[in-house]
Amino acid sequence: xxxxxxxxxxxxxxxxxxxxxxxxxxxxxxxxxxxxxxxxxxxxxxxxxxxxxxxxxxxxxxxxxxxxxxxxxxxxxxxxxxxxxxxxxxxxxxxxxxxxxxxxxxxxxxxxxxxxxxxxxxxxxxxxxxxxxxxxxxxxxxxxxxxxxxxxxxxxxxxxxxxxxxxxxxxxxxxxxxxxxxxxxxxxxxxxxxxxxxxxxxxxxxxxxxxxxxxxxxxxxxxxxxxxxxxxxxxxxxxxxxxxxxxxxxxxxxxxxxxxxxxxxxxxxxxxxxxxxxxxxxxxxxxxxxxxxxxxxxxxxxxxxxxxxxxxxxxxxxxxxxxxxxxxxxxxxxxxxxxxxxxxxxxxxxxxxxxxxxxxxxxxxxxxxxxxxxxxxxxxxxxxxxxxxxxxxxxxxxxxxxx
Length: 403
Ligand SMILES: Nc1ncnc2c1ncn2[C@@H]1O[C@H](COP(=O)(O)OP(=O)(O)OP(=O)(O)O)[C@@H](O)[C@H]1O
Ligand SMILES: [Mg+2]
Known about the structure:
Layout: E1 4-5, E2 12-13, H1 15-36, E3 42-47, E4 50-55, H2 59-69, E5 73-78, E6 83-86, H3 88-93, H4 98-101, H5 112-124, E7 130-137, E8 143-152, E9 162-169, H6 171-223, H7 229-256, H8 259-263, H9 266-281, E10 284-289, H10 298-319, E11 323-331, E12 334-341, H11 362-372, E13 376-382, E14 386-394, H12 397-402
Parallel strand pairs: 10-11
Antiparallel strand pairs: 1-2, 3-4, 5-6, 5-9, 7-8, 8-9, 11-12, 12-14, 13-14
This protein binds adenosine-5'-triphosphate and magnesium ion.
Magnesium ion binds at residues 313-314, 360, 362.
């Protein structure tokens, strides 16, 4: 290339300088193109003071690609819950075209009940991220179980608050949860059947055998004359020990599956178990509430009895209580059993979790037992003021009406 002389300038620019300038111009154009298409999110500038980094708006591009390709719904909402941005995944979840999703209110995809819950969730999102499980109402009328996580984002340039939301499809998690619950329920059923079998074996075979040995040893003790003093004393002691053994085996058998529960019902068994517990531990047990011997469904009676056993076991192990008050009531179509002690109490929030490998199973299995029969389970405990456990199980309408 030839040298160039510019108009109004006496300077002649040599050809290699022009080529250098063109190369730099091409480079600058390339950089601008890359910035525009989002390929660049940081520019490094060499200054006298050293290298300086400038982040660019183009960084959003990377996150946009990430959000578009993720398997969760991502939304940006205004403070009054209008969707200003939604990704394709969310549009697929609610089975609506993306252009119909954008600009509509998020509330339209929720049931009335869930809408009520959304307001406090949004409030909490200002300080901490919050989560809740809801059912999304899709465009075709179907329902989708999801978890929504909400976080308030920085104010935009005009000072308005925007809210970021991630929507996770919980269908698979729910299915796994249900499977796990069904499996645990089956394990409990098998455990109950096995307990019944062992209780029956103990009662029918071991207790009968011990009783036979007691009679033989009584006969032996009576046949020994007074002059055989030490041997007679030993035989009498043997009888007493065998008597205690028979009682203990009966107690174990009763706890495994109290025949009284099948024969006389829940109230009688609560009385018998409470009396036996008081005699053994010295902790008074007061039974209040219904005296009715009306029979409840067998699985409800069994669940209540097992929860009662577990609660008493906890009182014995942890509470150092003086008294336990047990209240059995039939109200509002449900049967409720409350077990309250005046012991040490504990902080339910501070319990180590089973997942960490050091939590107990008692409270967990009580909750599961209540859930299997459609009931609710609550624990209230205050340090140095005692613990109250309450389980409420709905009754079939026929029994509820009669109670
Ligand atoms: N009535 C109670 N009084 C005081 N603390 C209690 C009472 N019931 C439960 N706790 C506390 O709650 C914890 C959890 O009870 P949970 O029955 O789940 O497990 P655990 O009794 O420790 O073990 P497991 O029941 O599996 O033998 C107990 O370790 C104890 O600290
Ligand atoms: Mg326990």
